[in-house]
Q: What sequence folds into this?
């Protein structure tokens, strides 16, 4: 009798767990659909978002209308800056303490609001180089710094410029300051050095980034081998498209 009761109890627990995960899957698909609309609203494109609702049990969160954590992964993101496409191969977003009513998840109508949102993505160096608009210029990472290589013509001599830049965030833009450029074979003349300094000044600009979804504000940038890593965050924001 006791064994039968234990078996029945285990079966019921198993069914509850399955029901919990099925409900979570339904919510994840509903949120993914709203995220797609949010991305489109920012004049951006991406592959289908992957959404995972954290916390267990999920059904308790449904009843409360509040979710501990929703993780969103966007891949192949394409944004627009001054007519140029900027590529972000992957953008990971963590939304914490998300409020969404059961009716909102069921109908797709209403607000899904996160108390805090953190995002991390990587802008490809090819995209960043296009924004600088210098033929032949390439960017990469060297010892944790942004490195540049570019062909130049100084006093009729074709040279290759190499160097690194200081990178910071200024008013939502990436500030590039190329203060350490050199060119092997540069004529030892004040005019040649002045022309090289002018080239460095010409590519030391504030580069705007594409508007990120979920009202994310860029806080930090860091050169990595894969590209320029961008950290961003936001508070009290909707993670679904405005209705």
A:
């Amino acid at each position: 009798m006791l064994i039968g009761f234990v078996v029945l109890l285990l079966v019921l627990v198993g069914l509850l767990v399955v029901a919990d995960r099925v409900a979570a899957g339904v919510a994840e698909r509903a949120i993914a659909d709203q995220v797609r609309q949010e991305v489109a609203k920012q004049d951006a494109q991406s592959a289908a978002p992957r959404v995972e609702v954290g916390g267990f049990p999920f059904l308790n969160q449904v009843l409360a209308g509040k979710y501990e954590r929703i993780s969103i992964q966007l891949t192949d993101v394409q944004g627009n800056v001054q007519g140029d496409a900027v590529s972000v191969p992957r953008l990971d977003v963590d939304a914490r303490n998300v409020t969404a009513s059961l009716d909102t998840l069921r109908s797709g109508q209403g607000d899904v609001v996160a108390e805090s949102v953190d995002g991390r993505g990587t802008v490809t160096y090819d995209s960043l180089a296009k924004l600088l608009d210098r033929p032949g210029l390439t960017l990469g990472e060297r010892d944790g710094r942004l490195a540049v290589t570019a062909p130049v013509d100084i006093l009729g001599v074709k040279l290759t410029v190499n160097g690194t830049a200081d990178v910071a965030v200024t008013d939502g833009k990436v500030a590039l300051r190329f203060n350490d450029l050199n060119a092997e074979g540069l004529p030892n003349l004040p005019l040649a050095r002045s022309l090289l300094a002018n080239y460095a000044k010409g590519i030391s600009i504030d580069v705007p980034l594409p508007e990120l979804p979920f009202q994310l504000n860029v806080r930090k940038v860091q050169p990595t081998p894969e590209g320029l890593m961008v950290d961003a965050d936001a508070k009290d924001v909707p993670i679904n498209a405005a209705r």
In short: Residues 4-17 have pLDDT under 50 and may be disordered. The CA atoms of residues 60 and 66 lie 9 Å apart. The two ends are 56 Å apart (CA to CA). The chain is about 30% helix and 45% strand.
